[in-house]
Amino acid sequence: MKTGWSRKICGWSRSGPDRRIMSPEELAFVSSPEGAALLDKLADGLEQATAEVVATHRARRYANAGIQTVADLGCGIGGDAIAMASAGAEVIAVDREWLHVAMARTNANAYDVGERVLPVLADLTELPPFPVGGFFFDPARRTVTGARLAPGRRLRSVDDYLPPLSLIDRWHPLTPDGAVKVSPGIDYAELPPETEVEFVSLGGEVKEAVLWYGRLRTAATRRATLLPNGDTLTDLEPGEAAADSPRAYLYEPDGAIIRAHLVGQLACRLGASLLDPQIAYLAVDAPVSTSFACGYQIEDYFPFQLKRLRTYLRERNVGTVTIKKRGSPLDVDVLRQALRLRGADHRIIFLTQVMGRPTVLIGNTLA
Fold it and tell me: What is the pTM of this model?
C-alpha cells in the first residue's frame, strides 16, 4: 500500500532500508535481534501511515473550522501532523514509540514544518489531557501479539484498539472538537451517536473511516468521500430508491458509498433503481456520468442456471470472464472451472439477487 508522500520518509521504504547501499556495520545491525525489532516498529508505523492526499483532505476540515492547535494522539511517523501543520496549525504530536517520534520530527523538517510540530514521547494511557483547539486520535488498529487474534490482523472493534476509543472520553471535557481514525470495517453499533462518520476511498479503494466530533462534524451523520477528486455524498440527500428489474446499464457503487450506507442516496442522484433492496447494484436505462460508481453495459440476464450460462457464453465465443458477485453464495473459482470456456472474447458476469431471486447478468465495462 503506497502512502503517496512526495518526499522521502527518512530514506526508508515500506519494505525496509535499501540494503544495497548499507555499510557492513549497518547490515550487521539490521540483521541483529535489536535491528529486527527496530524494523518491526518501522513497518508498523509505515503500515498505519496516512496517504498524503487523505491527510491533506482531513487537515483542510480542521483549518476550515479555524482550529489553530491540534493534539495528534498516536502520531506515528508524522503524516497527519505534517498535513495539519502545512495547513497552518501548531501540532503536538504524541506517540509512545521513540522511533515514531524521531521519524515524525525528521519528516516534519523534510516538509519544512518542523517549527510547527512538537513531537512528544508519551504513553497516551498515562498522559493527562491538555487544552488544545482540537484533537486527532489515531489508535493502532492491527494486532501485535496475543492469543485472540493473529499478529498483523486488522482490529474491527473499537474496544480492541490500542489505546481503545474510550480514551477520548478523557479529552472531551477540555477539547470537544476533534476526530478519530477508525477501521473502515467498523460495526455501526459501535459508532458514538454524537459523531459524523466519513468513509474515505482513494482511487477506488476504501482507505479509512473518520469519526468527527464537535465543531468538526457537519449536519450529516454519514458521509462518503472519494479522493483525489474530493467528491462527497451524505445522508442528507434523499435515499428512498425503488427496486426493479435489471436495465440496460448497471452501476457498482464505490466501496465508500457502500460502507456509508448511501446506496439509496446514490440511486436517487442517478435516477437509478436497485436490483434488490439488499444489494448494492444500481440499474439505469442510459449511461450516466458519475465518480461514485463504475458503469457496465448489460447485454442479457436470466435466472442462474449453470448449463444455461455455459451455453450462452460458448455460443458467443467467450473464453475469459471476470466474475463479480453480491448476495450470491457461489464460489467464483469453482464456477469458473465449471464453465469450461475456450473462446476468444471476454465478458463480465454478475452473480446477484434480483428481487430475492438468484440471477446472472452478463455485460462489459463501459468504454
Answer: 0.86
